[in-house]
DNA sequence: ACATGCGTTCCACATTATGGAACTATATTT
DNA sequence: AAATATAGTTCCATAATGTGGAACGCATGT
């Protein structure tokens, strides 16, 4: 007996399923579509959805299609998830910058570009420019490759810009590279974003294991040998997992 | 009372109330606290919360306290709210650029700076540089002033940088300026971000009336007379409200 | 006018949610 | 170590609650 199946929750199960459907739908579903998809009578759907709407968990557009409600959109926006994230990842960046001596960055998906949201500089002068706010394309940065590889963002349409001598510019090559990233667990670039720039990046995952961000270490090719890339990648992975123990054990927190 | 009270939804009403409580709580509540606050028996609370947890709408931390679940955190992050927004606001930027001839921008709060997420250039060459990705401080941009004035972001700590001859650099002056913005409904700058640059910005609101972004029109002082500022401000406000009819309930037929 | 598709309201019915009590698991106190 | 308190889960008899077919409303299209 491994199934402690909760019972007496039919209504909530159904309503939750509808709510989740609405939250995750790429295009706002109509009542009839929801009813069909969940095999519910229209009357039942109407009642369930009405209740959710009354609470502000969902709302309807002028066509009557269902959208996430104000409670949810407010939660999504007001709560600065990025800030939470940078706060939580700060120590990781610091440790990485300390151990490697190079610059460490934290990035999430941005509007067409990698969005760098935090940085800790290494101990060298060369390479410590502030990246925050710069426009880094996905396909030619280590951070971007990680975000692409794990499906956090789709490969952008249009041409792949040749930013530097060795930028990847064809889709097949990029796809192969992303496959490699997934196999290795980390991404690298060399002369792909800027001549002489090397970077290594690994994914940051949430509670559920979904990739939500990436952390990189980057510096000049003059200081980072090719054979260090793997150990750097593993260092990043290890530091990230130290920060976010993927289990659910005891840990004092405020 | 003309209240079309929906009935037959007790379980969902209760579960929704609990869910919302958890979403909006500043500190994760325990089952007993939820039960107390909502005047429910522990057994009922346990069952309701168990159902929500099973669906991934809520999750428990190691103390057993309830947090928003993976479905919601994923929605909050991955779902590119900015993209939705730029898509919806594109026509407004286009109309404004068309009507005024100047550059129109859409911005949201960013990491310490105004984040410009879309731009439509005007018909003049002068002034059409691409702002997307640049670091614009809140206190010396029209967009930033709007975001500050309506509390979308707090006034940053630390000194107020003097970016240009007439940048506001003291807190009292800034507070007074923000009060003016709220009274007018729009914000302006002149020689505050860059010498010779004039901009006007107005707030973009969501369904509920919360300010979530700002739209500006900007150009060289040489082309924009002081007395045009008000009409520009009103034009922006009017175009935004055309895009988002503030009807809360039924918006009639198309 | 008629047909179609979407959504809401109604209501008889029994399935489903309810909540008190018993129980388990951890802290806290004596 | 036992006693007490606090937080949470499971059980189950009971009836209140949610259910869904049918009828109705209300647009839009033919």
C-alpha end-to-end distance of chain A: 36 Å
Task: Extract low-pLDDT stretches of chain A.
Answer: 245-254
- Please give the largest β-sheet of chain A: 5 strands, antiparallel
Q: Helix content range of the residues of chain A, please?
A: 40-55%
Instruction: Please report which band the strand proportion of chain A falls in: under 5%, 5-15%, 15-25%, 25-35%, 35-45% or over 45%.
Output: 15-25%
**What is the mean pLDDT of chain A?**
86
Biggest interface reads:
A-B, 59 and 56 residues
- Inertia-based shape of chain A: elongated
Annotation, overall tally of beta strands of chain A: 7
Specify the number of helices of chain A: 8
Structural class of chain A: alpha+beta
Radius of gyration of chain A: 22 Å
Strand ordering within the main sheet of chain A: 4-3-7-6-5
| H/E topology pattern of chain A | HHHEEHHEEHHEEEH
Oligomer: homodimer
Give a description of the structure:
- Two copies of one chain form a homodimer.
- Chain A is α+β, with helices and mostly antiparallel strands and 254 residues long.
- Helices cover 40% and strands 17% of the residues of chain A.
- Chain A is built from eight helices and seven strands.
- Chain A has helices at 10-24, 31-37, 42-54, 70-78, 81-100, 142-149, 171-184, 228-243, and strands at residues 58-60, 66-68, 103-109, 114-120, 187-190, 197-205, 211-220.
- A five-stranded antiparallel β-sheet of chain A has the order 4-3-7-6-5, sandwiched between helices. A two-stranded antiparallel ribbon of chain A has the order 1-2.
- In chain A, strand 5 (187-190) and strand 6 (197-205) form a beta hairpin.
- In chain A, helix 1 (10-24) crosses helix 3 (42-54) and helix 5 crosses helix 8.
- The relative contact order of chain A is 0.11.
- At the A-B interface, helix 1, helix 3, helix 4 and helix 5 of A face helix 1, helix 3, helix 4 and helix 5 of B.
- Chain B binds a DNA duplex (30 and 30 nucleotides) through helix 1 and helix 3.
